[in-house]
Amino acid sequence: MFQRIGGAAYKAGLDTSLNLSALFGNPHKSFKSIHVAGTNGKGSTSHLLASMLQLAGYRVGLYTSPHLVDFRERIRVDGKMISREAVCDFVERYAGMEFAGSPSFFELTMVMAFDYFKQQHIDIAVIEVGLGGRLDSTNIISPILGIITNISFDHTQFLGNTLPLIAAEKAGIIKRHMPVVIGEDSAETHDVFVSKAAIEDAPITFAEELPQVLSARRDADRWVLETRDFGTVTDQLSGDCQVKNANTVLVAAGELRKLGICLPDAAVRDAFARVCELSGLMGRWMVVGTHPRTVCDTGHNTGGWKYIAEQLRHERYERLHMVIGFVNDKDISHILDMMPREALYYFTQASIPRALDSKELARLAREKGLNGDNYDTVEQAYKAAVASACGNDMIFIGGSTFVVADFLSI
Predict the structure, then answer these.
(1) Are 379 and 410 in contact (CB under 8 A)?
(2) Residue 194 is part of which domain span?
(3) Does one domain contain both 245 and 325?
(4) What proportion of the chain, given as a percentage, has pLDDT over 70?
(5) How open is the CA angle 241-141-246, to the nearest 5 degrees?
(6) Is residue 224 part of a domain?
(7) 289 and 385 in contact (C-beta within 8 Å)?
(8) What pTM did the predictor assign?
(9) b/e string for 51-73 if b means 16 or more Cβ within 10 A?
(10) Which residues are CB-neighbours of 37 under 8 A, at least 6 positions away?
(11) Is the residue at 230 inside a domain?
């Protein structure tokens, strides 16, 4: 399982996924789909799209990864998690079949989702790429629309160590005649997408060239967005990165309308206002407490931390307490460079084998001028932060999706 042990569990290629799906009658062919790739923002984009489609009256499947607290978070229909009984039923059916391959955890989970979506008679599914795009298991689908949110450095051991190489892997979801929306553009990756779209004769839209978001202002822990076609949109997701994510989603909504998908303005606005309630989204600049203000965020790479670090600088507090942990298979030096030097740190490790040892993290952090103590568990680190913090302070929990998962579990 990749999220627990990392690279040893990574399995590239589509053959096993295709064969496994065929074993269950190719359920992915029974519904329309939207495919969402990118380095950051995939989860927010997917949950927002699923929410607006649901409010527009469609029966909507949502497949995302990883989960935070409950495995069933990965598979939802109209915002509700797959039942425990449905999970058991799929596993029992698979166990009783003769399958020559050795599917990974992700491949089995994906086909479980598609099989469940078929059983639930959904109209459309929003499918988030697991890792990369070209060789990701989810790339067996034939979507009506593809979305690539942005390109940054992450999983370089699998996707390449330059932005054009990473972009080429993400561009692998672009299929023949399929419209694709590119959320954030850059000089280094622009031609990669244009070239792939030309090869596939796929209509391509760069969201920043015809933006939907005209202006943005903060109102407490929400964004208020003035948009070109959807009026005033109040976004429940308050991270700095969400303005660009929102623009990507709104441009994608416009493309879906061109494809004949009914998306009333009211459904779009309501989806942004209630996305967490409608879809179960957690961990995106999630405010979980006041006095002291307590926020967790799953951002775990340089692209994500660029926004987190900037947002932390704009927060008001007497002292900042950082409960931080990472996985052990990433170069975190650039992330540590972005972290506020004045904060008090609680270095910790998530409850997975892949976690970076908290003592090693503390050593690396001190070399960067970050000071604090190390703790064996997220719970210990968080309780220490609470004991030390005053009412006007701020506590931030993050660095790794799995640190946030442990935090939300307690």
Answers:
(1) yes
(2) 2-212+241-267
(3) no
(4) 95
(5) 15
(6) no
(7) no
(8) 0.91
(9) bbbbbbebbbbbbbbbbbeeebb
(10) 129, 132, 133, 136, 146, 147, 148, 149, 170, 173
(11) no
Of 150, 199, 187, whose CA–CA distance to 170 is shortest?
Answer: 150
* The amino acid at 307: Y
Query: Is there a contact between 180 and 145 (Cβ–Cβ < 8 Å)?
Result: yes
Q: Measured between alpha carbons, how far is 225 from 302 in angstroms, rounded to an integer? A: 26
User: The domain spanning residue 116 has which CATH number?
Assistant: 3.40.1190.10
DSSP states along 280-312: ----SSEEEETTTEEEEE---SHHHHHHHHHHH
Residue count of the chain = 410
Residue 27: asked if its preceding bond is cis (omega within 30°), the reply is no
**Residue 8: what pLDDT?**
55
Task: Yes or no: say if 86 and 109 are a contact pair by the CB < 8 Å rule.
Answer: no
The enclosing domain of 344 has a CATH number of 3.90.190.20
- Please, which residues bridge with residue 224 across strands? 217, 234
Q: Which residues pair with 222 in a beta bridge?
A: 219
Number of domains in the chain: 2
| Higher pLDDT pick, 81 / 306 | 81
CB-CB neighbours of 343 under 10 Å: 19
In terms of domains, do 249 and 336 share one?
Answer: no
Same domain, 49 and 154: yes
Q: Are 328 and 355 in contact (CB under 8 A)?
A: yes
Angstrom distance (rounded) from CA 340 to CA 236:
26
User: How do residues 61-118 score in pLDDT, each as one tens digit?
Assistant: 999 999 999 999 999 999 999 999 999 999 999 999 988 888 999 999 999 999 999 9
CA distance 43 to 281: 8
Whether residue 267 contacts residue 56, with contact meaning beta carbons closer than 8 Å, is answered with yes
Element at 347 (helix H, strand E): strand 344-347
204 strand-pairing partners? 180
What integer is the mean pLDDT of 358-365? 97
